[in-house]
Amino acid sequence: MSGLLSVADALARILAAIPGPVEAETVAVQSAAGRTLAADLAATRTQPPFPASAMDGYAVRAADIAPVPASLRLIGTSAAGHGFSGTLGPGEAVRIFTGAPVPAGADAILIQENAEADGETVTAREPVAEGRFLRRAGLDFREGDTLLRAGETLDARRLALAASAGHAALPVRRRPRLAVLATGDELVRPGERPEWDQIVASNGLALAALGQEAGAETIDLGIAADDTGALRDAVGRARTAGADLLVTLGGASVGDHDLVQAALGAEGMELGFWRVALRPGKPLMHGRLGPMLVIGLPGNPVSSIVCGLLFVVPALRALLGDPRAGEDRSEPALLGRDMPENDARQDYLRARLETAPDRLPVVHPETRQDSSMLSVLGASEALLIRPPHAPPARAGDPCRIIRLDRRIV
């Protein structure tokens, strides 16, 4: 379609307009969940710091129990946090528990199921190979090893690794400030009673939630009326708040009441592009207002949420320094029904998934795809992607989907 950007080109232009990630700050490891690392993280210690037992049993010399049965003299106990400080000699054993230091002189662990203890003596019923059930020092990592990379999101497993590596505080990117502005005389806030010709604003909440999931701090600019002065005032509040990204909802088209683009232009916005070859979401706007990135989304709820996933989330991840911000998040699937030829716009169709452990998911697009219908989006599990000019397809043909129930980062 003449004058319309492809989805890929639109995303590339948005990401190219971001000069770099936001500043770094240091936070306690206990407060770093969901944050994004600002620098590579190296281990400050070795783990385990000593040879450790992988099982409950007895620390022994493998050669002493090569022929069995073999009786050994118990000379002590090694438990986690209470290691045995002596040295194991020929014909000796130390009672040991999982995670405890292996005493000097021992080279294997005789598990307790294969041993019989009697007072100060333990009898081995099975031989054990040298090194068996013994974790060498540094098995997990060594001091100086790079364990995590800049741009990674600190989830539970990465936080555990960082703490184990000796870090009490972590360098992270500050949360990008996402300002969200809904526009339109027809909107009221959730909880307010709409007049007969009004509706409840819902997509502002959705975009704020997407932003928070992606790692942003959100600024609610409320609802601006279809009035240039009100719109310019809201934009001014976003600038005063130091927003890194302003997302407007509705009013970016060319109707008599679509004033957002004009108001932003009056504030000095440099327009990057307007209109993208996708459905839902063709009237999408991008520009810069000084240091603030601007993305204008359609007002229809489904359109704004789909475009939020496709463009706003990657922009926020780029602001956080995530090197995978622009990566393709789609995955393969199989069509669940026949599909007609597509036109010049890339479709993102709400769909249900049929899954089984031994095959690709089968995607069933909903029959109703009107961009105002949140009930259909709420019941959907994925977006089926139909490229521009895609030929007719049959049930069982390969396709691509974006899962809606998968974490953003």
Give keywords:
409 residues, alpha/beta, Molybdenum Cofactor Biosythetic Enzyme, Chain A, Molybdopterin biosynthesis moea protein, domain 2, Molybdopterin biosynthesis moeA protein, domain 3, 4 domains, six-stranded mixed beta sheet, 26 strands, 19% helix
Description:
The protein contains seven helices and 26 strands. The chain is 19% helix and 29% strand. The chain folds into four domains: 7-23 and 175-319, MoaB/Mog-like domain (Molybdenum Cofactor Biosythetic Enzyme, Chain A, 3-Layer(aba) Sandwich); 24-47 and 142-173, Molybdopterin biosynthesis moea protein, domain 2 (Alpha-Beta Complex); 52-135, Molybdopterin biosynthesis moeA protein, domain 3 (Beta Complex); 331-403, Beta-clip (Beta Barrel), CATH 2.40.340. The longest helix is centred in the last third of the chain and has 19 residues, at 301-319. The protein is an alpha/beta fold. A hairpin with a 7-residue loop joins strand 23 (346-354) and strand 24 (362-365). The strands form seven sheets. A six-stranded mixed β-sheet has the order 7-4-6-5-9-8, with no helix packed on it. Strands 16-13-17-21-20-18 form a six-stranded mixed β-sheet, with helices on both faces.
The low-pLDDT segments are: none
Q: What's the arrangement of strands in the largest beta sheet?
A: 7-4-6-5-9-8
CATH class of the largest domain: Alpha Beta
CA-CA gap between termini? 33 Å
Largest sheet: 6 strands, mixed
Q: Overall mean pLDDT score?
A: 94
Tell me the fraction of residues in β-strands, as a range.
25-35%
> What's the Cα radius of gyration?
30 Å
Task: Determine the number of helices (DSSP H or I, runs of at least 4 residues).
Answer: 7
User: What percent of residues adopt helix (DSSP H or I)?
Assistant: 10-25%
Q: Tell me the structural class.
A: alpha/beta
Molecular shape: elongated
- Going by CATH, the homologous superfamily of the largest domain would be MoaB/Mog-like domain
CATH topology call of the largest domain: Molybdenum Cofactor Biosythetic Enzyme, Chain A
* Strands, count: 26
| CATH-scheme architecture of the largest domain | 3-Layer(aba) Sandwich
Number of domains: 4
